[in-house]
Write a structure and sequence with these properties.
Length: about 210
Amino acid sequence: MENFGIREKKKAQLKIAILDEMLRLLRTKDLTDISVEELCQNIQTTKVTFFKYFRYKEQVLDYFVLRWLYDRSNEIHRQWFHGKEGIIHTFQTISEDPLLGKKIMVSLVHYYSKLKEKPTTMEITPYEYYLFNKDAFQNGIKPLELTQIFIYYLSQLESVNKRDYNKKACQLLALMYGVPIQTHIMELEDMYPFYEIGINSILNSHI
């Protein structure tokens, strides 16, 4: 195992604990009903400690996205998916837990819509990446952004012209966050069919 410092380990483990507790609470509550006090009490830490790692509770969702992206980056390195299959899988991983997936997407859209500037970049330590995905970390996987993931899979499609990669990647990104806005998502049993319609439309369109 890698040689990590005790302080780095404790910090990473606490941030993961905060994230996991946030996801647990989201199963029964909306983000607006979850308080930092409740989060901290449930994992036996303090608000002072919480704010050392997160500027506000919504930023915990940014942390979730970073962990989710690291798993997707590992899949690309492993070449587990190809072309359209990879794009579909990326959307399906959001929908695989219907309740939590919808809660996360609605919360993210609400959070991002209130931001007046780009979210602060979060610094992730090597041990955090280790906890995110040990296999990926031990194989030296570098985290990719979502647009990079989409472009990777788009580049494997003969039907997509190279000059259109960036535009279609942006369209897929807009689709991911647009579905929760355009539909009454919490009333849906499964949001993936709406994603699938959008994916097919984007990939079949000629820009």
